[in-house]
Specification:
heterodimer; A: two-stranded antiparallel ribbon; 4 strands
């Protein structure tokens, strides 16, 4: 007889899964009017899950070594939950005015967050794949949620087909790695990779795994789906796409590469350098020509993934610290910006063109101020937190000897600054377009708080940096 | 295993693999999509037979039950319901042939390189989490069952969640509540009571109701 595995390390996930099932029942039996109730309860569930994660076991491996908990996973999970919770608030604020508000929307968000938590905690290639699938499957449905809208359906189908292809590549790579090592657990892989002879099979396997993961975080050259999906999906769902899956995906990326594949750092470093450079430059250049602000944000997020990947290239504690801090800053920048985009309404109708922002400073100075702060932060201009995020990443790269990479990053952020600053110029110096409606209460609070946080993070970064540092240390301890 | 049964086994192997390849080619080259699906089912059966030859009877049965029984029949439904014109689908064939062929060749070369230079980690044998049990002692099904619901119960549960999400997604994206559709509600019909619906009316002659 096998003994029961220890459940305690997985209490947050178990609670979340059970709560999601309970909310599903609630939604089904209450029929039509349950969207708001289920959304608020989902936010509550996420909050409780975060508390459980923080209070939970410090460091443990359970379920036959398939599931791991340590300081790093807790940090990553709390970040993911924070991002998802904030975007769920946005979704709630938006859904009230829409006729297709359905209770499945918060539930799918909940299930995808569960998938993200499982993939952050994955300690085995099979567990990793299942977490990724649970996450992506929910995201495909979310992209197509506005099913009567042609663009949303197109976004959903495109995301689904390309996502399935990426999952296939991930699986193919995993099978090659398994064929080399004879095991799928991360500990076993680490041992096999460290001392094993340099086999072509395992190198190609790792490249395929990287490809699959790079697709999930939309790094160039696997980013083709991003602008279309971002543009097609409803705005608050786009906000969710740009925050939670990115954070979870990058944390998973970090865990996989510095954990089981640490022994082959020379092989994967080159691949990640290429991906990072391409993402940074293409994210900056392609964004210049965009007219839709959602497409612009898509390219902006591609660029941010590129910067974050520099932290991965470095592959040491300092790099991991930089990456985690960057993700934290990125979370609030993104959520704040999307709160502004969601508030871009003229007489109750949503507008998405950059030109619609013209003269916003005169019609709605508060909103213009918030967006200006966020854009300065995105561009990485000093009195904002975005600067610190980039700073820690570049310092880590320079300290590890990747000076050229840091220079490319700096140049890319100069190019990127052009389109961020252009938005500010349009808001403050162009002739006013049609006046926008004042933002709703929740969205207003979210945009005010996140732009204020940009300054707060810059003035007192120490507590956050030390948290990120502790998480990074936990990652390298095992 | 004696020499005679070895020959029978190799003969069976070649028979089934040739048929599988022929079936697979026919899937692609048939003009009628329904015929393609039928050839696909044929290929599945041959693959199942190959699995039986390998001693993997569980996978063989799953292949027949799941792929032939469910997936292929579903394909058949889809193909029959959607009016797919293969000639139209093939229009871009020559245009996409070069890039398709290039991708195929690259993949083939990669496979050759990988399998040509295949090495296993020296610890691979020791690292195996679940060593393959002796097929003489336990059946495939039992061996799988022993680990699936114990060591890998976590993965089993997560797969269940994935299927649940797939179900929710399918319902969200397809279910439409149209107003004005008359549906049979059996519970309402059963709960109908004569007391609520039948009234006894005393009608006086020459006055009528109202």
């Amino acid at each position: 007889m096998t003994a029961l595995p220890a459940f305690a390390p997985a209490y947050p996930e178990i609670f979340m899964a059970l709560a999601a099932l309970g909310l599903l029942m609630l939604g089904v039996f209450r029929k039509n009017d349950s969207m708001t109730l289920v959304t608020w309860l989902s936010i509550l569930v996420m909050a409780v899950t975060a508390v459980l994660a923080i209070q939970g076991t410090d460091s443990a491996v359970t379920f036959n070594k398939l599931f791991v908990v340590n300081g790093f996973t807790v940090f990553a999970k709390v970040l993911t939950l924070l991002g998802a919770g904030l975007t769920l608030l946005l979704i709630n604020a938006w859904a009230e005015g829409e006729k297709f508000a359905r209770f499945e929307l918060p539930l799918l968000v909940l299930f995808s967050v569960l998938g993200m938590m499982l993939m952050i905690s994955a300690n085995d290639l099979i567990a990793l794949y299942l977490g990724v699938e649970l996450q992506s499957l929910s995201l495909y449905v979310l992209a197509a949620f506005h099913r009567d809208n042609q663009r949303a359906t197109e976004a959903g189908v495109k995301y689904f087909v390309l996502g399935a292809l990426a999952s296939g590549l991930l699986l193919y790579g995993s099978s090659l790695v398994y064929g080399f090592a004879g095991t799928t657990t991360f500990e076993g892989l680490a041992m096999a990779v460290k001392s094993g002879p340099n086999s072509i099979g395992v190198t190609i396997g790792i490249v395929f795994v990287i490809t699959g993961l790079a697709f999930k975080v939309s790094a160039v050259p696997f980013h083709m789906w991003t602008p279309d999906v971002y543009e097609g999906a409803p705005t608050p769902i786009t906000a969710f796409f740009s925050v939670a899956p990115k954070i979870a995906g990058l944390c998973l990326f970090l865990r996989v590469l510095v954990g089981p594949f640490a022994g082959m750092i020379e092989q994967w470093q080159q691949v990640i350098i290429a991906i990072a450079v391409l993402s940074m430059t293409w994210g900056a250049i392609a964004a210049i020509a965009q007219k839709s602000i959602k497409r612009l944000m898509a390219y902006s997020s591609i660029g941010h993934v590129g910067y974050a990947l520099i932290g991965l290239v470095v592959g040491n504690e300092e790099g991991a610290r930089g990456l985690l801090f960057y993700l934290l800053v990125y979370l609030f920048m993104s959520v704040g910006t999307f709160a502004v985009i969601m508030s871009m309404r003229v007489k109750g109708k949503y507008v998405e063109e950059i030109g619609d922002l013209a003269g916003l400073s005169r019609n709605n100075p508060g909103m213009a101020m918030a967006l200006a702060v966020l854009m300065f932060s995105m561009a990485g201009i000093p009195p904002m937190a975005g600067f610190l995020g980039k700073f820690y990443i570049f310092v880590a790269a320079v300290n590890a000897g990747f000076v050229a990479l840091a220079v490319v990053g700096l140049l890319a952020s100069v190019v990127g600054a052009f389109y961020y600053l252009r938005l500010i110029k349009i808001m403050y110096f162009d002739e006013p377009a049609a006046a926008m409606d004042p933002p709703g209460l929740t969205t207003g609070i979210i945009m005010a708080v996140s732009s204020a946080l940009m300054l707060v993070f810059f003035i007192v970064p120490a507590p956050l940096v030390s948290r990120a540092e502790a998480a990074a240390r936990a990652l390298f301890l095992g | 295993m004696g020499a005679g049964s070895m020959i029978v086994a190799s003969l069976a192997f070649y028979l089934f693999s040739i048929m599988a390849v022929v079936g697979a080619l026919n899937v692609i080259f048939q003009r009628n999509p329904v015929h393609s699906v039928l050839w696909l089912i044929f290929t599945f059966f041959n693959a199942a037979a190959l699995f039986v030859l390998l001693g993997a009877e569980f996978v063989a049965m799953i292949l027949v039950v799941v792929y032939v029984g469910a997936v292929a029949v579903l394909f058949l439904f889809v193909v029959m319901m959607l009016d797919i014109n293969v000639v139209v689908l093939r229009e871009g064939f020559l245009k996409y042939l070069p890039i398709g062929a290039l991708t195929g060749i690259i993949l083939l070369v990669e496979l050759a390189v990988v399998y040509g230079g295949w090495t296993m980690a020296p610890q691979a044998k020791a690292l195996r989490v679940v060593p393959t049990p002796d097929p003489g002692q336990v059946t495939n099904t039992e061996a799988l069952g022993r680990v699936m619901y114990t060591d890998y119960a976590y993965l089993f549960q997560v797969s269940g969640l994935i299927l649940l999400v797939a179900m929710i997604g399918a319902i969200v994206l397809t279910l439409r509540r149209r107003p004005g559709v008359r549906k049979q509600k059996i519970s309402d019909q059963v709960h109908r009571d004569s007391k609520d619906t039948v009234t006894l009316v005393q009608v006086q002659s020459g006055k009528g109701l109202s």
